[in-house]
């Protein structure tokens, strides 16, 4: 089951989409009245995937980088590292008890590719606007 939280074999990826370093742990995400799941957060070069274990099923949700308004981390003495993913003005996804080494690799990857993706989306939007004039 743990390996199923790490892979994206059940998803159709874009031709040039590359999977980055995943985080596995306790995901706080509101879904059908439940708030805490064993799960994974997996970045790719195009988007972020959230995998949640519900009973014996694994649910996968994709989040586009353009929808993410912020990523913050905190370190609490009894809990450890926590990562928060913001959409709009609220924290929509959190993961707690993340190891330092994994978190650093994850953040490096997501910051790099989210910035590239946002820049590409902006350039595409500008070129569409210029063509419409």
Brief synopsis:
The protein is 29% helix and 44% strand. The chain is built from 2 helices and 7 strands.
Report on this structure:
The chain is α+β, with helices and mostly antiparallel strands and 133 residues long. It has a single domain (2-122), classed as Roll (PH-domain like), CATH 2.30.29. It contains two helices and seven strands, in the order H-E-E-E-E-E-E-E-H. It has a seven-stranded antiparallel beta sheet with strand order 4-3-2-1-7-6-5. A hairpin with a 2-residue loop joins strand 6 and strand 7 (90-98). 23% of the residues are buried. Residues 32-111 form the YokE-like PH domain. This is YokE-like PH domain-containing protein.
* Average pLDDT reading: 83
Question: Strand order of the main beta sheet, please?
Answer: 4-3-2-1-7-6-5
- Please give the number of β-strands: 7
The major pleated sheet works out as:
7 strands, antiparallel
CATH topology description: PH-domain like
Second rung of CATH, namely the architecture: Roll
| SSE string, helices as H and strands as E | HEEEEEEEH
């Amino acid at each position: 089951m743990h390996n199923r939280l790490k892979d994206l074999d059940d998803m159709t990826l874009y031709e040039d989409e590359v999977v980055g370093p995943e985080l596995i742990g306790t995901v706080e995400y509101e879904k059908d009245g439940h708030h805490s799941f064993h799960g994974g957060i997996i970045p790719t070069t195009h988007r972020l995937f959230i995998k949640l274990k519900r009973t014996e099923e694994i649910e996968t949700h994709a989040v586009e980088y353009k929808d993410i308004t912020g990523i913050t981390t905190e370190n609490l003495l009894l809990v450890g590292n926590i990562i928060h993913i913001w959409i709009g003005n609220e924290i929509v996804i959190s993961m707690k008890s993340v190891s330092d080494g994994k978190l650093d690799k994850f953040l490096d990857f997501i910051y790099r590719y989210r910035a590239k993706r946002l820049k590409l989306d902006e350039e595409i939007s500008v070129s569409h606007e210029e063509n419409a004039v």
